[in-house]
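Checklist before submission:
- one chain only
- standard amino acids only
- sequence pasted in full

Submission:
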Amino acid sequence: MEGQNVLVGAPTASGKTEALAAPLMERLIRQLDRTGTTRQESSLKLMYISPTRALSRDLVRRLRRPVQDCGMSVGIKTGDSPDPDLKGDPPDVLVTTPESLDSLLCRHPRTLRELRALVVDELHLLDGNARGDQLQADLLRLKQVVKRQVQLCGASATLPNGDELAATYLGEEAAFVHTGALGDGDHRDIEASLVRAEFLEEAAQAIVKIFRETGDRKLLVFANNRRHVEELTALLADREILKDRVYAHHGSLARSERLRAEEGLRNAPAAVCVATMTLEVGIDIGDVDRTVLVGPPPDVSSLLQRIGRANRQEQTTRVTCLQAGRFERQRVEHLLECAARGELFAETVPFRPSVVPQQALSLMFQNPNRWIAPRPVWKRLPPEAREFIDLDDIRRILDCLAEEDYLHPMEKGRYAPDTEALHDHRYGRFHSNIHDDNEVEVVDELTQQVVGKVRFRREQEEKLHDGEDLALSLGGKTRKVVNYVDDQLIVRSEEGLEKSQFIGRLPPRYSRGLARDFGHYLGADPNTMYLEPADDNFLFFHFLGTVWGRLAGDLLREKGNLRSLGSHSAFYVTVDEPPVPGLGFDGSDGLTEALDDVLQSNLYEYVDLLGSGPFAKYVPRTILARWARRAVDIDGLASAIERADIVEGGIL
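Returned file contents:
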C-alpha cells in the first residue's frame, strides 16, 4: 500500500495472489480518485506475469470477478489466447507471460506508458534459467517506457534466497515479506508413504491400489518426463476401475487437451491425472486427496510444490512416493528431510550472454526507426551482466547475427534488420528463450483438431514413406500415424498401448549443495569419494551435483577410465577402471587445465546443461567459453577433486 517493491513468500494455497492483488487494486483506485481519472479510461494499469499459460488462465478466472466489481476489466495475452485490443481498448489488468511482456515492449510499448504496477507470480519457476535472465532485462526496459515509477512485486511458495531474488528482479530496495521459514513442508504436516515400484507397470498397480483401497478418490500423479506421463496414463486407462477417469497433462499437449485434463480432474468426484511439472503451480484443479510421486522430484522446491497440491484446506498433506529401489528411496527420504528443515539448496548461474541477441532483436523492432547499436543493448542489461559483458562483446554478438542474415551493418556502427529478422518478427519468433524441441503438430484425422506435439525424426518419416506402420502415445491414447504433410502428423485414434515417442528434455540441474548434503545424509565424508563394485564395472560416488559431476565424468572418459558416460548422475558415474586420487594429476594446476580442456571440447553441451536457451548459437564461442568457465567454477571443482580421498565401499 505504501508503493514499495515487495516479494511475498508464503505456502501453497495461502492466498498470495489475493494478498498482492487486493492492496494493489485499492492503491490503484486511490491514485485514480486522487488524480480525477475515471476508472473506465482505456489504459493498461496493472500487469500480472505468470510463468505458464495454464496458470495465466487460472489467474484470470480468479481475478476477473473482484476486478470487475471494482469497475475495471481483465484481459489475457498468451500463446493460447487471442490478443486483447491493446491499442484501441486495452484492459485495466492484463495477465500474461514473460514472453508476451517482451512482445509488448517490442510491438506496443506505448500501451505500457500508464502502467502503475507489475506482479511476477511463481518467481522461482523463472529464476535460474534463460527466461529469468530475459525477464530481468525486460523489467529494466519497462522502466524506460512507463511515464512514472512502476511498482514491482513478486510471489512464490519456495524461495531459498528471497532477499537476493527480491533485489535481482524487483530492485535493491525491494522488501522480502514472508510468513516464516520457507520450505518447511508448507507449514503443514506431511504424511508420506514410500512404496517400491521398479517398473511403470508396478507404479500403475500401486496407483490403482491407492485408488481402490485408501478412500483417496482424486489423485494427482507427478512423473519426471513426458514419456512416463504418456505411458503411465495409458497403463492406468487400461484398468476397468479407472476407465474414462484418467487424464494426462504436459507441455506438449494442445491447449484443448490440457483444459480437458484440468476440468476433468476439477469436476469429477473420482479421477486420476498424470502430469509433469505443468501442474506444480497453483492451477485450480479442485480438491486433491493425495499426490503420488513417480520417482524423486528434481529438487526440494519441486517436492514442496508437488505435495502442496493435495489437501490444500487441511493441516496434513498426504503423498505416496514410488521409488525404483533403495537408492531412490534414500533420495526421497533426503528430500523430505530437507523440506522439513527448510533447506532448498539453490544454485545460481551468472547472467547468460545468450539472452543478448534475443534482446537486441526485440530492442531493434521497438525502435520506430528499426535499427540497433551496441550501446543501447548494453545499457539495458542488468548491472551484473554489464560487469562481464562489455561493448565489444555486444558488437561481436551483433556481427554474429549479421553473419546469420539477421542483421546488416549500417553507418555509424548501427545495424538494421535483415531477412531472417524480418521473417521472425512477422511471426513473433524471437520473444522466447524457451528451447525449441523441433516438435511437429499432431492432428486428429477425424476432428482435424491439433491434439499436441511430438518429436518426429527423419528416420521415422522414411519408415512411414516406406509403408511401415507407425504409432505413438499422446494424451494417454494410442494414435496411428496415417500421413505426414505440411509438417503435421495426421493420426487416427486406436485401441491398445503403444510406446511413447517423446524425447525427454534435459532434467533440471541438481545443485552441488543438494548433492553434497545427500552424501552427508548417507554418511559420506565430504572430502571422500567412494568406489563401489557393480557387475563388471564400478560406481564412482562423487556427490558433486549435475554440472561438476558431468565435467568430472567427461575427464574420466578422456583418461580412459570409462568408454562412455553411460549411467551417470549428480551423485555418481559408472567407470570401467577405478580412478586414483586427484584423478592422476599432480596438483590443482594440471587438473584445472585438463578440466578446462574438457569444458572447451564439449562447450555447447555444457551451455545447454546450464540452460542457455535457443539463442546461444548467435553468441561467439569465445564469449560463451568465458561465461561457461565462470558459471562452472573450474577452480572450485579442481580443488574439490584434489583434496578428496578415494576409498572402496562405504555407501551402498
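Reviewer check: Residues 156 and 271 are 28 Å apart (CA to CA).
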